[in-house]
């Protein structure tokens, strides 16, 4: 009898411990979810505040501003990939010094190193960094990391507004200047995208028109 009673006590104790652990885990997960929701709400408030300020600035000076953010992690990833290709090319050069098919190995090494250098160089281009587009009354000004570029509307040769998926609420303005193409995304800002498109329709004269 004593064994059965001890066994029951142990089982009861284990059940209580499991309930305590479960309650702690539930409390931790609930606190984590609350932190995530608070963080998301903070980001939403910041985004709305930024949109409000941009709208006020637009009403004040008639310029529509749109910032295109480029992630630093993407630039780092490109550089890492480029360095890997360069190192692989160097390894192939060392491998090509002996054995057969030296010319083929050398060509592969040169191609790998050339591609690696191209990728690394591309990660330092102006277009790899944040850009701010200012759509004014007479020109489009692009503010980049190293300087700015001014594009008069009369030099724009084509433009289009793209809505890839209505459910995503993601809109794109693409405009061309000769062989140069510029893509301006508008995440969740259909009104601003349409306002820019209206400016382009008013200011730009293409061959189709």
Automatic annotation (TrEMBL):
Keywords assigned: Membrane, Transmembrane, Transmembrane helix
Compositionally biased intervals (Basic and acidic residues): 1-19
Region (Disordered): 1-20
Residues passing through the membrane, by range: 76-97, 103-120
Name used for this protein in its record: YcxB-like protein domain-containing protein
Organism name: Coprococcus aceti
The organism's taxonomic lineage, starting at the top: Bacteria, Bacillati, Bacillota, Clostridia, Lachnospirales
């Amino acid at each position: 009898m004593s064994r059965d009673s001890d066994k029951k006590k142990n089982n009861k104790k284990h059940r209580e411990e499991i309930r305590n652990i479960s309650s702690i885990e539930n409390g931790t997960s609930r606190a984590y979810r609350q932190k995530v929701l608070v963080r998301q709400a903070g980001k939403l408030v910041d985004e709305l505040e930024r949109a409000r300020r941009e709208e006020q600035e637009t009403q004040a000076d008639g310029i529509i501003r749109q910032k295109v953010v480029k992630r630093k992690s993407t630039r780092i990833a490109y550089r890492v990939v480029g360095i890997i290709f360069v190192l692989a090319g160097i390894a192939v050069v060392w491998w090509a010094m002996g054995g057969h098919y030296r010319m083929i190995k050398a060509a592969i090494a040169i191609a790998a190193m050339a591609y690696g250098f191209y990728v690394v160089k591309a990660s330092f281009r102006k277009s790899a960094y944040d850009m701010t587009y200012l759509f004014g009354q007479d020109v489009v000004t692009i503010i980049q990391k190293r300087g700015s570029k001014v594009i008069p509307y009369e030099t724009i040769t084509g433009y289009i507004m793209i809505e890839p998926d209505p459910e995503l609420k993601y809109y794109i303005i693409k405009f061309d200047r000769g062989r140069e193409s510029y893509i301006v995304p508008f995440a969740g800002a259909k009104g601003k995208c349409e306002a820019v498109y209206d400016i382009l329709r008013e200011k730009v004269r293409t061959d189709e028109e």
